[in-house]
């Protein structure tokens, strides 16, 4: 092989890093494998691993997060995958001629195997590292990130063959060098990448929209300003103390942020009514958990896992809650956690007809309701978290001061409370 070949494919591998696609849960995916596999077809098996090791710039050296050992690991990891797939490819091409009805399909078969080997080695190593860094179960990482990547590896395999053929057949396009054809071919591919990127961006945009809606609901009233934000922070701390993994904590955080989204469907005259509610009005309030889930149904692909929280955050341990009157462990765990966080936040926020309680008073009240309104084990856990948490967590005033710079208020503090309560229920909004 010539030096120009080596540098050209090296440059393509380096370029692939700049067009990487971000995946959820801190992983990313680039087209590196495309060029590495093409190099596998074109050159001897020692070339692709060397190319990847030298030209795989996963981190910019000026990046403040740059760590030489991370960089080295990434190079070794992709290099190992490249070596394994190059060896698999050459073994099949040289030792296992495959033909279907007399047609030689060795190359197609070899590239298919090489793609799969590259995928399995790469993704397994990445999954282990993400697992070590985030404590997420490996299965979860695979499911969230790599299901569709395998499909793209296999679908892209013919492209790999094409790239290699274009390069080696040297068409008379600007001199006698196949590199020009490869570059022309890559332009549409570069645009295709944007569509992959869009899928991930859309999910992020959706999360942002949901946040925006939650902030809008909270900001309508001074007593609920930053309410869901604080419920989320509290519920997340409880979930961590409970020992849930990062994916479940993420669900709880999301669910807590939108648990009251169904309030959009409650008339302002009821929602902002000062003082106690009539039975009919309270009946209206009780519709918000089910309405919330109905409202989000069209987005269920993105957010289904939070539905239990939205629907059941007003259920009570003794079965006297709503909407279904579930009791004890019938109530989903996530909803039991959020209901404690929700009640604590509402108690410390107060209502127009009820003074805000001190953190100590609110904690005592939550404890009084263990086994009545709340899961007694979770109340114990809540106390443990409460005791070791900073003031910004326990004290609403401090929390508001800390967060209000990040979330704008709609300036409607003169309005009355959000969700008035029925006489017998110490429950929150
Ligand atoms: Fe609620």
Fold blueprint:
Elements: H1 3-18, E1 21-22, E2 28-29, H2 32-42, H3 47-55, H4 68-95, E3 99-100, E4 103-104, H5 106-134, H6 138-169, H7 179-219, H8 227-242, H9 246-258, H10 268-271, H11 279-285, H12 288-296, H13 300-303, H14 307-312, H15 333-349, H16 359-368, H17 376-388, H18 391-394, H19 396-403
Antiparallel strand pairs: 1-2, 3-4
Bound molecules: fe (ii) ion.
Fe (ii) ion binds at residues 259-260, 288, 313-314, 429.
Structure keywords:
two-stranded antiparallel ribbon, disordered C terminus, binds fe (ii) ion, Hypothetical protein af1432, single chain, 429 residues, Arp2/3 complex 21 kDa subunit ARPC3
Structural notes for this entry:
With 429 residues, the protein is mainly α. It has two domains: 3-202, Arp2/3 complex 21 kDa subunit ARPC3 (Orthogonal Bundle), CATH 1.10.1760; 220-403, Hypothetical protein af1432, CATH 1.10.3210.10. It is built from 19 helices and four strands. A two-stranded antiparallel ribbon has the order 1-2. The protein starts with a helix and ends in a 26-residue tail after the last helix. The structure holds fe (ii) ion (FE2). Fe (ii) ion binds at residues 259-260, 288, 313-314, 429.
- Integer average pLDDT: 82
Are any ligands bound, and if so which? fe (ii) ion
Structural class: mainly alpha
Radius of gyration: 28 Å
Number of domains: 2
| Coarse morphology | elongated
Assembly type of the chains comes to single chain
For the termini, the CA-CA separation is 71 Å
SSE string, helices as H and strands as E: HEEHHHEEHHHHHHHHHHHHHHH
> Which CATH class of the largest domain applies here?
Mainly Alpha
Per CATH, which architecture of the largest domain? Answer: Orthogonal Bundle
Number-wise, the strands total: 4
């Amino acid at each position: 092989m010539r030096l120009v070949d080596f540098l050209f494919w090296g440059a393509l591998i380096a370029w692939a890093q700049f067009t990487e696609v971000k995946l959820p849960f801190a992983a990313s995916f680039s087209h590196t494998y495309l060029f590495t596999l093409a190099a596998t077809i074109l050159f001897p098996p020692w070339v692709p691993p060397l190319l990847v090791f030298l030209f795989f710039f996963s981190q910019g050296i000026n990046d403040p997060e740059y760590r030489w050992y991370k960089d080295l690991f990434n190079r070794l990891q992709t290099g190992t995958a490249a070596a394994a797939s190059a060896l698999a490819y050459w073994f099949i091409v040289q030792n296992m001629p495959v033909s279907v009805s007399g047609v030689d399909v060795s190359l197609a078969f070899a590239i298919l195997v090489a793609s799969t080997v590259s995928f399995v080695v790469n993704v397994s190593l990445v999954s282990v590292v993400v697992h070590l860094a985030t404590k997420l179960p490996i299965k979860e990482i695979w499911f969230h990130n790599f299901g569709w990547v395998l499909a793209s590896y296999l679908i892209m395999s013919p492209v790999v063959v094409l790239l290699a053929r274009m390069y080696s057949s040297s068409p008379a396009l600007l001199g006698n060098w196949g590199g020009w054809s490869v570059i022309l071919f890559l332009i549409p591919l570069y645009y295709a990448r944007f569509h992959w990127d869009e899928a991930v961006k859309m999910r992020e945009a959706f999360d942002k929209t949901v946040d925006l809606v939650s902030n809008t609901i909270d900001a309508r009233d001074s007593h609920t300003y930053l309410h869901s934000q604080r419920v989320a922070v509290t519920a997340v701390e409880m979930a961590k103390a409970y020992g849930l993994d990062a994916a479940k904590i993420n669900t709880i955080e999301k669910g807590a942020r939108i648990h009251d989204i169904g309030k959009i469907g409650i008339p302002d005259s009821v929602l902002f009514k000062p003082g106690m509610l009539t039975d009919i009005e309270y009946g209206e309030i009780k519709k918000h958990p089910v309405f919330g889930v109905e409202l989000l149904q069209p987005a269920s692909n993105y957010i289904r896992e939070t539905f239990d929280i939205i629907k059941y955050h007003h259920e009570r341990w003794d079965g006297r809650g709503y909407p279904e009157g579930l009791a004890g462990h019938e109530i989903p765990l996530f909803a039991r956690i959020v209901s404690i966080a929700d009640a604590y936040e509402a108690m410390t926020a107060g209502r127009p007809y009820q003074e805000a309680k001190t953190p100590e008073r609110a904690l005592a009240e939550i404890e009084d309701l263990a086994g009545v309104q709340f899961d007694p084990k979770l109340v114990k856990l809540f106390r443990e978290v409460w005791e070791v948490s900073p003031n910004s967590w326990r004290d609403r005033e401090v929390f508001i001061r800390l967060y209000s710079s990040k979330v704008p208020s709609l300036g409607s503090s003169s309005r009355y409370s959000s969700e008035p309560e029925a006489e017998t229920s110490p429950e929150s909004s």
